[in-house]
Design a protein that fits this description.
The protein is α/β, with parallel strands linked by helices and about 650 residues long. Helix content is about 45%, strand content about 20%.
Length: about 650
């Protein structure tokens, strides 16, 4: 077949630093040939991950396939061979896959590793450590063998090896264990940059200086390596060039041509501060200098993160598909998403709930097989541009499908959209179930009322049952789905009601604002699932510290909680805040982002209004917020009592 209109899928583990240059390389070749690119983020529940390529092939949604070095989500082992098998007769190219009989593109791993290890040992280092990738990864095994050969050439005994599966967190933990047991380590080579950054984390936590005590090098030359706190020496495997070569091979296969079994790119060593030392030991232009383009990417990433946090906040309170569409319409253009399609999925069939372009978002489309990706006339959108395809499958059950395209793909947006939209769809499902339950109860009540219309007592009981059902529904819509305490709309309503009572009676009113200290570091280190568990535990501590039935505990947003204390003066509010601090400290929740032995803490701002004249609830909240920031600024894990509003 020809290449114009062809749809090529690139399977990646995540849209991150390693994948981005590969994606840009692939699309730079496909676009001029009239072919489109579907970046399939490897679905994380194992059952879906093992079947999605086959489903797309059978539905005619893809014409060719490029598989990067993805891993099975359930086992952490390489999934490349399984994905190649699912492709059936489609043209397939792998990137460092090492699958027999399939064209493969990779860099010269042995040469690149030799450059890095020779550089590490050139300064007289004699106790190297290897942080290796998965034992079934062709790329990792080549780098491991080349590392051993370079160590032998230097006349050193075989070096110890820790295996970390290409993941930063795993590398941090296992390198820290190795440093504790080995002691004498003065050089670390990691088989990719993520693991090298994990090793840097472990060295910093152990008080080892880089590069004075230990020199460190990685592989892949990602932007994270260049912008790390200690810029990382790394092997540049020309990832964009690998993507270009893989795309050309797929296009040649689509045209029916012959292609080589293996194509290799060259490598070069990029020397930075993790090996260069304070005076710099690398070639001219290397060392701690960060390219302007990378700095621009970092600044752009900070702005994107700001908008994504706004979207996360908005999605946390949606109760309908219309709410969801409004939030996406408001925020997606700010992160340069030019096309987006979100569908809910049930029993293998999808239904669009949001879509950019025409027909207008929200127009009825009916359901369609999810493996077709888009319904009816919209399928034409698969034939141009680059769409990131993500399956939203909480708990292993497909609940949604997201396709989106950005002006310039970044490593923040895809992951944030995946997590936040998965949570939003779960919240909508809970709301639908609650409404359906209430509707069913209402139907039963109506039926019973018709049957017993002569019996006033029975009718009254039925009405009471309906009232209780509606009350349960209303209650469910005011509860934060993650932590179980009240949500932001419930807090706002409680504060307004308490303020009216404060104005009427003249009794004092107090508010606490509680924020989890260094929560971003917690998420960055332990991941968002662990972060969610931490928020639930902190919410339980705060709720336990609040004793009166009229007091309201709510999740204010993100990692911030709020407490309304009606008829409580400053002294009473201070006692409650002190109990909050004691409960959180007593929980002794480990904080992996702050080093070994660190535990989670909170900072609390306390504000009290003695008289409502001339002020409003917003002033009380603003005063508590100021007190919270003073608690943060003066060391965290403490409370600050603001002056009393009067």
């Amino acid at each position: 077949m020809g290449t114009r209109g062809a749809r090529v899928a690139l399977v990646v583990d995540r849209v991150e630093d390693y994948a981005l240059p590969v994606i840009r390389g692939v699309e730079s070749v496909l676009a001029p040939a009239g072919a489109s690119l579907l970046v399939l983020v490897h679905p994380r529940p194992a059952a879906q991950a093992r079947s999605w390529v086959e489903r797309l092939r059978r539905a005619g949604s893809i014409d060719g396939l490029v598989v990067s070095t993805v891993a099975d989500p359930a086992t952490g082992t390489s999934a490349v061979a399984g994905l190649v098998a699912q492709a059936g007769g489609l043209p397939v190219v792998t990137l460092g896959g090492g699958v027999l009989g399939v064209p493969d593109v990779s860099c010269d791993n042995a040469a690149g590793t030799a450059l890095a290890v020779d550089h590490l040992l050139a300064a007289g280092r004699r106790h190297p450590l290897l942080v290796a990738g998965p034992a079934d990864s062709a790329d990792s095994l080549e780098r491991e063998a080349a590392f051993a050969a370079a160590v032998a050439r230097a006349g050193l005994p075989p070096a110890p090896v820790v295996r970390a599966g290409f993941h930063r967190e795993t590398a941090y933990r296992r390198t820290a264990q190795a440093l504790g047991s080995l002691g004498a380590v003065d050089a670390v080579f990691a088989a990719n940059d993520e693991m090298a950054l994990g090793a840097l984390d472990a060295l910093a936590a152990g008080g080892r200086r880089v590069p004075e005590d230990v020199v460190v090098a990685g592989f892949d030359d990602t932007s994270a390596a260049a912008t790390a706190e200690v810029p990382l020496t790394s092997v540049d495997p020309h990832l964009a060039e690998q993507g270009e070569l893989a795309a050309r091979l797929v296009l040649d296969l689509l045209r029916g041509g012959d292609v080589p079994a293996r194509v290799r790119t060259g490598c070069e060593l990029v020397v930075r501060a993790s090996t260069a030392g304070p005076e710099g030991a690398g070639p001219p232009g290397t060392g701690a200098v960060v390219p302007v383009e990378l700095l621009r990417d970092v600044r752009s990433g900070l702005l994107v993160t700001h908008h994504l946090l706004g979207l996360k906040h908005g999605l946390s309170s949606v109760v309908s598909e219309d709410d969801l569409a409004r939030e996406l319409t408001a925020y997606l253009p700010r992160v340069a998403v030019r096309r987006a399609h979100l569908a809910t999925v049930r029993d293998g069939r999808a239904r669009l709930v949001y879509s950019t372009g025409t027909p207008p978002a929200g127009a009825p489309t009916g359901s369609y097989p999810v493996e077709e990706l888009l319904p009816g006339a919209r399928r034409g959108e698969l034939a141009h541009g680059t769409l990131v395809v993500q399956v939203l499958a909480p708990g292993g059950h497909e609940r949604g499908l997201l396709l989106h395209e950005q002006d310039r793909l970044d490593r923040y947006t895809a992951e944030a959209l995946h997590q936040d939209l998965t949570a939003a769809l779960q919240a909508l499902q809970r709301a639908r179930r609650a409404r359906a339950h209430a509707a069913e109860l209402e139907r039963l009540v109506a039926e019973r009322t018709a049957q017993l219309q002569a019996e006033v007592h029975s009718r009254r009981l039925a009405q009471e049952e309906l009232t209780r059902a509606n009350a349960r529904l209303s209650e469910a819509l005011l509860v934060d789905g993650l932590t179980g305490v009240r949500n932001r709309p419930a807090f706002d309503d409680a504060l307004r009601r308490a303020w009216r009572e404060h104005e009427r009676t003249g009794q004092p009113l107090s508010v606490l604002l509680c924020d989890v200290d260094r929560f971003k570091a917690y998420n960055d280190t332990a991941g968002h699932l662990a972060g969610d568990a931490c928020l639930r535990a902190v919410a339980a501590c705060i709720a336990d510290a609040v004793r009166r039935s009229d007091d309201v505990v709510a999740r204010f947003g993100g990692e911030e909680f709020a407490v309304v204390l009606p008829a409580a003066d400053a002294a009473a509010a201070e006692r409650v805040a002190a109990r909050v601090l004691r409960r959180v400290r007593a929980a002794a929740l480990p904080h992996p982002g702050c080093g070994p032995g660190a535990t989670v803490s909170v900072s609390v701002g306390v504000a009290t209004s003695a008289a409502a004249a001339g002020a409003g609830p917003e002033d009380l909240l603003r005063t508590a917020d100021g007190a919270l920031y003073r608690a943060k600024d003066t060391g965290r894990d403490r409370l600050v009592l603001a002056g009393v509003l009067s």
